[in-house]
Amino acid sequence: MKKLMMIQAFALLLCVTTLAQDKKVAVMDPVGSVPKTIMEIVREEISSVVVNALGYTVLERSLIDKVLQENKFQMSGLVDDSQISEIGKRMGANFVLVTSLTIMENGNYYISCKLIDVLTARIEKQKTGRSERGSNDLIDIVDKMVGEMFLSSTRVSDGRKYEEKTTQEPTPKYESGNKSNLQSNSVFTVFEDLGLAVINKPLGSGNWENAKTMCNDLSIDGYKDWYLPSKSELVMIFGANNRSYMNRLKSLWYWSSTEIDDNKAYNVMQNAWATDEKKRDRGPDCICVRKLNR
């Protein structure tokens, strides 16, 4: 009897452990008649989003290449979902993410991403989109599409609390002094609970130094003390559940002023409140804030 109970307990533990393990995703090189550099950038951006999704792990690139070479597969020839499913099994993946890129006549890109379950060869999730400014907004479109596929749905269904990998910054303190009569308008929104005013329209993508400079040089309604928000401030703004404000944001990733080292700084995702590291010469969007006088 005791032996049977031990076997049942072990089986239950094994089941729970299996359920708790992250699902492994093989992110394949995008296919399509586009420049190789565009392919590589899109693949790395997709990997970056999936890495930050709760419940998912991205397979190492070296493993994917090794399996493809050993089995003489080329992704350009894997047009059948069952073939993609089979190669995914050999990689030890739970899902395979495939992306296709097409340059349209007007110079914009049409993008299709689909997540294939390797056990059933069924398309688990799929998103399509198109750029509006050629390659200039391609990365933002890809980030948003993949973010909607993984991060938004994952955070609703996954009961685990998101934890940042680094020490959380202290909550910004309100300034002392008289309360500001700053009111929300078409240019900025006041987050009273956070003690912050936030511009409504992002200033556009650019490198980290440019983002800081644009905020420091900003002047709105006589206020010149705007600045690039810290990582913790951005997390609080995006987590404030202000839907009317969030609907104004078109880009997915935004620069924070929080540095990592001489080459990297944090950026924050607006629809899932995840953080990521970016080289300072990359180009997420940026918004500016100022503290309310209290």
Task: Describe it.
- The chain has helices spanning 2-20, 36-51, 61-70, 81-91, 138-157, 208-216, 231-238, 243-246, and strands at residues 23-27, 56-58, 95-103, 109-117, 123-130, 188-191, 196-199, 253-259, 264-269, 275-279, 289-291.
- It folds into two domains: 21-157, TolB, N-terminal domain (Rossmann fold); 188-291, Mannose-Binding Protein A, Chain A, CATH 3.10.100.
- It is of the alpha+beta class.
- The strands form three sheets. The chain has a five-stranded mixed beta sheet with strand order 2-1-3-4-5, sandwiched between helices. Strands 6-7-11 form a three-stranded antiparallel beta sheet, with no helix packed on it. The chain has a three-stranded antiparallel beta sheet with strand order 8-9-10.
- Helix 2 packs parallel to helix 5 (138-157).
- The termini are far apart.
